[in-house]
C-alpha cells in the first residue's frame, strides 16, 4: 500500500487525538462519540488511500465500496457528539426540536452519501475524492451523489451548533462548540482538496480542535475545583454527566439546612497563636466534610468557623428532615472531639448546630472566574439563628424539621424548648433540642 507520508501522518494524528479524548474522559458519552468520530476519520484516511492504490492498478473489486464505511461512521459520530452535548445544555423556554431533528437528518444524509459511495466507488475516487482541482467534481452526477448529501449534512450540523450556542451554554462548552464549529469542516475539506493541500487543512483542523478541547478541559478543571470544594460525589457525578448549568440551575425545592459553627471561637482565636487556630479550623472542616460526604449533602459555604450545609439540593433527598438530624449528629460526633482536643475542656469551646427545613431557592451565582452555590429562603436564616443560640454540644431544630419526625425514634429523642426570640423573626420561634446532643 503506497500511502504518501503526509497522509500517513494525518491518519496517525487523528488516531492520536481520538486516543487522547478517550483517555481523558472515557466515562463521558460525548467524549466517546467524539473519539469514535476522530478514530474513524483516521481509519478513513488510510482506507481512501488504499482504495486509490487499488483503483490505480486496475478495476476495483466488488467489496471496494465497503471502504467508505469508516467515513460514514465518523460523520454520524460527530453529529451524535453534538446531539449529546445539546442534551447537557438547558433550553429554558427555547424550542429545541428543530436542532435535534436537523442532526438526525444529517446522519441520514451521511448514510445516503455512504450508500452512493458504495454503489459508485470508482466515480467517487475519480471525480470526488481529492478532485477539487478538476472540472469533473462539478458534474451533475457527482453533485447529486456526493456533494449534495454531504454538504447539506455538514450545513445542518453547523446550524445545530449555532442553535446550541444560542441557548447560552456554560462558558467551557461554548469554547469547545465554537472551536469544533471551525475545526470539523476544516478537517472534512480534506476529502475534496487536492492531495497537496488536504493534509494541510486536516492538520490545521486538528490544531483548532485541540485548542478548543484544551481550553474546555482547563475551564472544566476550574469547575472541578468548585465541585470538589462544595459538592458531594453524587452531585459532582451528575454535573459531569449533565453539565454544570443543567444540574445546578436555579430552582425552588424543599430541603433541610444544617448550620454549624464553633462556640467560643472568637475568644479562643484571641488567646492562641494563629497557627493553632488554623490547625483547629483545618481539622474541624475536614471532620465536617467527611460527615457531609457520607450523607450526600452540599456545602453551601464556609464563613470563618461556620459551615452551611444543604440536604436536598441539587439532588433531592427523601426524608430530608430525618437525614438532616442524622447528619447533624454525625457532625457532632466527628467535629466535637476535634474542637475539644484543640481547645481543652476548660475553655468553653465546642460545636453548636441549628437545623431548619422549608422551601428554598437555590442556584449558581457569580462569574466564570468565581462561582458560588446560593441558597435563599427563610429556612436558611432560621437554621443560622438557631445555630447562634445553640450551646456547645447542642443541636437545635425548627418546628418544620421536628413535626415530620414526631412518630419516629429521632422525634422521641427531641424535647421542646421555650420559644426563642430570634433576630429577623417577628414572633418567638418554636424550636426543639435533640436530647442526646445536649452539652455536657
Beta-strand portion reads 5-15%
Number of domains: 2
Low-confidence parts lasting 5 or more residues at pLDDT below 50? none
Specify the biggest β-sheet: 8 strands, mixed
Number of strands: 8
Helix and strand composition category: alpha+beta
Helical fraction equals: 55-70%
Shape: elongated
Q: Give the helices and strands as they follow along the chain.
A: HHHHHHHHHHEHHEEHEEHEHHEE
Oligomer: single chain
> Helical stretch count?
16
Mean pLDDT: 83
Cα end-to-end separation? 84 Å
Question: How big is the Rg?
Answer: 30 Å
What does this structure look like?
The chain has 440 residues and is of the alpha+beta class. The protein has 2 domains: 5-230; 250-437, 2-Layer Sandwich (Alpha-Beta Plaits), CATH 3.30.70. Helices cover 60% and strands 15% of the residues. Strands 1, 2, 3, 4, 5, 6, 7 and 8 form an 8-stranded mixed beta sheet that branches. A hairpin with a 2-residue loop joins β2 (298-303) and β3. α7 packs antiparallel against α8 (198-230).
Keywords, separated by commas or semicolons:
2 domains, 15% strand, 16 helices, 8 strands, Alpha-Beta Plaits, alpha+beta, 440 residues, 60% helix, 8-stranded mixed beta sheet
Helices and strands in order, then pairings?
Elements: H1 5-24, H2 29-56, H3 69-87, H4 97-119, H5 121-128, H6 140-165, H7 171-188, H8 198-230, H9 233-242, H10 244-248, E1 251-263, H11 265-271, H12 274-295, E2 298-303, E3 306-311, H13 320-343, E4 350-366, E5 371-376, H14 378-389, E6 395-398, H15 399-402, H16 409-412, E7 414-420, E8 429-434
Parallel strand pairs: 4-6
Antiparallel strand pairs: 1-3, 1-4, 2-3, 4-5, 6-8, 7-8
Helix pairs in contact: 1-2, 1-8, 2-3, 3-4, 4-6, 6-7, 7-8, 12-13
Amino acid at each position: 500500500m503506497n500511502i504518501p507520508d503526509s497522509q500517513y501522518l494525518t491518519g496517525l494524528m487523528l488516531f492520536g487525538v481520538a486516543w487522547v479524548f478517550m483517555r481523558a474522559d472515557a466515562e463521558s458519552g460525548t467524549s466517546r462519540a467524539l473519539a469514535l468520530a476522530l478514530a474513524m476519520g483516521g481509519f478513513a484516511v488510510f482506507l481512501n488511500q488504499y482504495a486509490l492504490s487499488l483503483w490505480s492498478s486496475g478495476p476495483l473489486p466488488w467489496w471496494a465500496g465497503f471502504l467508505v464505511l469508516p467515513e460514514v461512521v465518523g460523520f454520524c459520530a460527530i453529529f451524535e457528539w453534538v446531539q449529546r452535548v445539546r442534551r447537557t445544555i438547558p433550553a429554558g423556554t427555547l424550542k429545541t426540536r428543530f436542532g435535534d431533528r436537523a442532526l438526525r437528518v444529517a446522519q441520514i444524509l451521511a448514510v445516503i452519501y455512504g450508500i452512493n459511495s458504495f454503489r459508485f466507488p470508482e466515480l467517487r475516487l475519480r471525480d470526488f475524492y481529492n478532485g477539487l482541482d478538476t472540472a469533473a467534481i462539478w458534474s451533475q452526477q457527482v453533485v447529486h451523489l456526493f456533494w449534495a448529501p454531504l454538504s447539506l449534512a455538514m450545513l445542518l450540523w453547523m446550524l445545530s451548533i449555532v442553535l446550541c450556542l444560542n441557548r447560552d451554554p456554560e462558558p467551557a462548552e461554548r469554547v469547545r462548540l465554537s472551536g469544533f464549529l471551525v475545526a470539523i469542516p476544516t478537517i472534512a475539506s480534506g476529502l475534496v482538496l487536492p492531495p497537496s493541500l488536504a493534509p494541510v487543512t486536516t492538520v490545521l483542523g486538528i490544531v483548532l480542535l485541540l485548542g478548543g478541547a484544551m481550553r474546555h478541559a482547563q475551564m472544566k478543571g476550574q469547575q472541578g475545583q468548585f465541585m470538589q470544594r462544595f459538592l458531594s460525589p453524587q452531585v459532582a457525578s451528575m454535573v459531569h454527566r449533565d453539565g454544570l448549568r443543567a444540574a445546578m440551575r436555579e430552582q425552588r425545592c424543599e430541603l433541610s439546612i444544617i448550620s454549624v459553627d464553633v462556640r467560643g471561637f472568637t475568644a479562643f482565636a484571641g488567646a492562641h497563636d494563629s497557627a493553632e487556630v488554623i490547625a483547629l479550623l483545618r481539622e474541624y472542616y475536614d471532620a465536617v466534610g467527611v460527615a457531609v460526604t457520607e450523607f450526600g449533602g452540599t456545602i453551601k459555604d464556609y464563613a470563618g468557623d461556620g459551615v452551611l450545609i444543604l440536604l436536598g439540593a441539587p439532588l433531592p433527598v427523601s426524608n430530608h428532615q430525618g437525614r438532616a438530624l442524622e447528619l447533624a449528629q454525625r457532625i457532632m460526633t466527628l467535629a466535637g472531639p476535634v474542637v475539644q482536643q484543640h481547645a481543652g475542656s476548660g475553655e468553653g469551646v465546642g460545636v453548636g448546630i441549628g437545623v431548619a427545613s422549608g422551601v428554598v431557592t437555590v442556584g449558581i451565582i457569580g462569574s466564570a472566574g468565581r462561582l458560588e452555590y446560593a441558597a435563599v429562603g427563610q429556612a436558611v436564616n432560621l437554621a443560622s439563628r438557631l445555630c447562634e443560640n445553640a450551646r456547645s454540644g447542642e443541636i437545635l431544630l425548627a418546628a418544620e424539621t421536628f413535626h415530620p419526625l414526631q412518630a419516629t425514634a429521632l422525634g422521641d429523642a427531641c424535647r421542646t424548648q421555650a420559644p426563642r426570640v430570634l433576630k429577623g423573626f417577628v414572633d418567638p420561634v418554636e424550636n426543639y433540642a435533640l436530647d442526646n446532643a445536649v452539652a455536657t
